[in-house]
Write a structure and sequence with these properties.
The chain is of the alpha/beta class and 200 residues long. The protein has helices at 19-29, 62-70, 86-98, 109-119, 135-145, 160-169, 181-193; strands at residues 33-37, 46-50, 78-82, 102-106, 123-126, 150-155, 173-176. The protein has a five-stranded parallel β-sheet with strand order 4-3-5-6-7, sandwiched between helices. α6 (160-169) links the parallel β6 and β7.
């Protein structure tokens, strides 16, 4: 969705520039709006977030909506969410938990490998731009640990080369942050339908 100059995968000198998009999507999920204004370079920025005081009568809340959608994503799964952004990981894990899945979180590659060695996740949503060991290397090592775990890239990298590298590393799906809830449900349904097929 966004592009910056050359960065390493760990983004130690900058992010992907998707923060405002995430804020916008989360605000809209709560039937709100966000406006960004600036007088120009070096003049600062002002952000206005408006949220309703309460849910409108007869309108399902975001959480209820998540539960309804989760009911069609198949039976409960053991899912590991790996992201060095703790807030993003917790928010996504909460969404999956609301859908009825058993979810755990790891914030770096080594922690993910350790947790998966003991817990054996069925599905792992794995960030690519992790510090130290990037998501591609984590994916390769997980494939050695357990070749039945389904790996889904959850990343800000959307260009074709990133998608190709995902396939080579053993990912079966590639989602760009912040994915729509419908996209997440579609991935979970697709993985359930493909359980008997060989991995890519």
């Amino acid at each position: 969705m966004f592009e910056q100059g050359r960065r390493d995968l760990a983004r130690s000198t900058g992010g992907l520039g998707i923060g405002l998009s995430i804020v916008k999507k989360l605000t809209e999920l709560h039937r709100g709006s966000v406006i960004a204004e600036s007088a120009g370079i070096d003049k600062g920025s002002e952000f206005t977030v408006r949220l309703p005081a309460r849910a409108e009568d007869g309108v399902a809340s975001p959480v209820t909506s998540h539960k309804d959608r989760g009911q069609i994503s198949g039976s409960a799964r053991r899912i590991l969410v790996v992201d060095d952004n703790a807030d993003a990981a917790e928010s996504f894990a909460d969404l999956l938990t609301e859908m009825g899945h058993d979810v755990r979180i790891a914030n770096d590659g080594r922690a993910a490998l350790e947790m998966n060695r003991e817990w054996r996740a069925e599905i792992i949503f794995l960030d690519i731009g992790l510090p130290g060991m990037d998501g591609y290397e984590v994916a390769r090592q997980i494939r050695v640990q357990n070749d039945t775990t389904r790996l889904v890239a959850l990343t800000g990298y959307s260009h074709e080369s990133a998608r190709s590298m995902s396939v080579e590393a053993g990912f079966v799906r590639h989602l760009v942050k912040l994915p729509d809830i419908d996209a997440v449900v579609a991935v979970l349904e697709g993985l359930a339908a493909a359980e008997e097929r060989p991995l890519n």
